[in-house]
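Minutes, structural biology subgroup

Action item carried over from last meeting: produce the C-alpha cell record for NHL domain-containing protein (Arabidopsis suecica). EB confirmed the sequence was re-checked against the source entry. Recorded below for completeness.
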Amino acid sequence: MAFFSDSLRQCPRSISPINHYSSHLFSSFTRWRHEHWIQDIGRTTFLSRSLFRFASVRRVSRASSSSSPSSPHVDLLSFIKASLDKLEGPSHHWLNRDFGNKQLFKDKGTYVVLAGHLLDGTSDLSGFFEKLKLLQQRSPGVCFMGIHFSDQARIADDRTALAELILKEYLTFPVLLSEKEFPKTSGEVRYIVFKDFKNPLIYEEKDLDIASVAKALDSLLTQDTEKSKSVRLFTNTWSKQAEAIKESHFPSFFQDLLLYFPGCISADDIGDRLFLSDTNHHRIIIFENSGKILDSIGCFPGFEDGDFESAKMLRPTGTLYDEEEDCLYIVDSENHAVRRANINSRVLETVYPKVIKKTGGLWSWIMEKMGLGKDDDTTVDADTKSEEFDARSLLFPWHILKRDDESLLVINKSFSKLWIINLASGEIEEVVEGFSKIMKICGQSITEKLSVLEHMPSNWLQQQTAPIASYKEQPSASLLSSFTKLGDNIVMTDIACQRVLKLNRDSGACSSIQFSNVGILGLPYWLFIPLERVFNLANGVQEAHLSHTQELRLLPGKISIRLNIEIPPCTELVEPIQESCIWRQTRGAISEFSSAGSAVEPSEKVGVSQQWYDELDSLAKEIANPEAAEEEEEEDVNPSEVEREEDGRIHIDCPVKTSPGSSELIVYAALYLRLARNEETESATQEVLARKIAKILKPIRNITTMKEDLFVNLLSKSKRELRDVVFMKPMHVRIRLDSKDHPKADNSRDVILTDSSVEVDVSL
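Output recorded by EB:
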C-alpha cells in the first residue's frame, strides 16, 4: 500500500561510496518521517504525496554533488526520452509501437513503466501485466509502457520471445527492448511512475496493492490544469473505458490471419457444434465438427449487449454450453465480466456484473451511441468497477465451470483465484484464493477433464503448457479450457500455430480443422469502422492501406462500375467472395442501388406518393401469394454482383446513380486467401513461405522490417503447413466522380438521362 523507500535508499550505495553518507542521512530522515507522521495520519494518499516530495529532495541533493554520478532511474528516464523519436537505435528497439501515435512524444505527461527482465520465467509476469492493464483501463490519459533489459548476445531471441509475450498477454502498450543495463533497474520487475520525466516513484514489491499506484496517479493527474476532452468523452462510464484502449499494434500481421490467438473451446455434443474463442479478434466462432462456420458472436472490442452482430466483448476466453437453456456462458476476460449468449434468439447479455441501463428517450440513446452520454445513463455494479480494486471483484477471469447448485465457477488463468457466481442473483457468493483451495472445491471436475490429456501428443502438450503455465502445482491445468470432447474426437486449440486441431481417440490421427463458409464472418471491424466512425481519441484504430484510387468524369445518370480485382500472385481464394465481405458507401451527389434488390424503374417519372403506393402493391402481392414471392426472393439472393472468371480475377459490380456535382464511391472487401499449391510453393521452405505471406500482408500497414522478420520467425517456428494458413487481404478502393450537368433535349426543357459503364482494374 505504500511507496518503498528502501529501494530509493539502496540505489546510491550501488553506484558510489561517496554517496553512502548522504544516503544514510536520507534513510534516517525517511525512518523518522515514517515513525512520527505515518502512524498519526495513516492514509495512503498523504503517504504518496510525502514520498513524492522525498524523491524530489533526493534528486536535487545528488545533483548538487559534482563527484557523484546521476541516479540510475534518472538515467533511465533520459534514455526513454531520447528513444521516443526512433523505433530503433544503437541500444534500443521498440516493439508494439505505432510510430504514428503522437501520444508518446510528449515531454510533459504522466508515464507508468514496467521495467525489468520481462522474460524471466521464475516469476508470474501475468500478474504484473494485469495490474498495468487495470491502471490503463482506469487512466486512459496516462502513457503506459514496458522495458525489457537484454544484452547483445541474446537480443535476437529476446525479440522473438517478446513478440510471443505481446501476443499472448495482449499488451496494448509499447515495449522498449534495451541493450543498455541500468543498475538496480534490470533485476526484479518494478513499476516506475513519473511526470514530465522527473521525480520517479518506484514500486518493487511483487504483491504490491495496485491501489497505491492508482492513488499516486490521481495525485499526479490532479496537477494538470486541463484534462483532454478526448479522454473525458470516453470515460463517462466504466463500460466505455475499454473502447478508449488502443488495440495491440505489433501483431497486426496476426490480426489478418483467420484466427488470432484461439484461446479456448467448448462443445455441444447433441447439436454437434463447437464454440471457439477467437480471443484477440474479440469474437466467438460457432462451427460444425467438419469446420463449417455457422455463426459468430461479437463485432468490435468493447462492452455492449445486444444481437450477435452488434454485441461487443474484450478478449473472450472460456466458454460453457448449457444444453437445457441452449445458451453459451462466455468469460469476457478483459471486461472482467461473464456474458450469456442465447443461441436461439442470437442475443448476448451480461450475467455479471449487473448492468443497469436508465432509459432517457431517443435523444439519450443517440448521445450514448456517440459516446457523449451522461455518467448516469449506463452504470455498472460498483463492486466490479476497476477503479475500486476490490479483492472480491472479478478481475481477468479465464476458465469457467458450472456446479449443480446453479452457480458458476470462474477461475483466472494462473489458478490463483476462484469466484463463485450465483446465476439467480448475478452476484459473487464467495472468493477462494490459492491453488490447493481451488482444487478442493472443483478439483474433481478439473481432474476428470484433464484425464483426457493422456490421449494427446506429448510434444503438443509441452508446446502449449510452457508459455502459459505460471505455477508449478499442475501445469496441465492451464489447458483446462483449451480442449473439449466431441464424439470420438478431441478438439484442441493451438495458440502457437493459430489453428484448431482434431485428434481421433481411437486411431490417434491428428489433423488441423479446415474452416469453410468463412464469408459469414463478414468484413472485419478493423477495416470498415475507421472509415466513417470519428474517434475522439487521436490514437484510434488506423485506416488500412488504400489499394486503388481513380477519378472519373462522366455524365450524370446510371453508372455501372465494375471492379476487376487481380489477387496477389501465388495465392488463391479459399472460397468465392460473399456479399457479407463487401462494404460499399457513396458520398456527395451519388447514390448506390442494387441491381438485384431494387425494382425496375418505370419509364416515366413518378412522385414519392406513387412510389409508396407501388411498394404497398408489392407487399400485398407477397401476402396474397407468398410462394411466388419466395421464388422471386430466391432468385435475388445471390446476385451477379460478385463473379469470378477463368483468368483468376474477381469482378465486383457497383451500380450507382449520380447527379451533377462531385461524388465518391468507397468499396471495401475482405478477400480470404491462402498460398496456391504449385511447383513454386511445393519446393519452398517454411521461411520462404512465411516471407511470402508477410510480403502479401505488408502493404496493409506501415510495418517495419524488424516486425516483418519477427512475424516470419513466429510463423516459421510454428511447424504447421503454411500453405493451409488462411489470411485476409483487404481491398480498399476509392473512385471519385465529377459529373457535369444533364444534357438538354431539343425542346430545351427536358433533360436527357444517360447510362454509362466503366471498368476499374485493381491489382493487390
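Discussion: The two ends are 55 Å apart (CA to CA).
Next step: EB to file the record with the rest of the batch.
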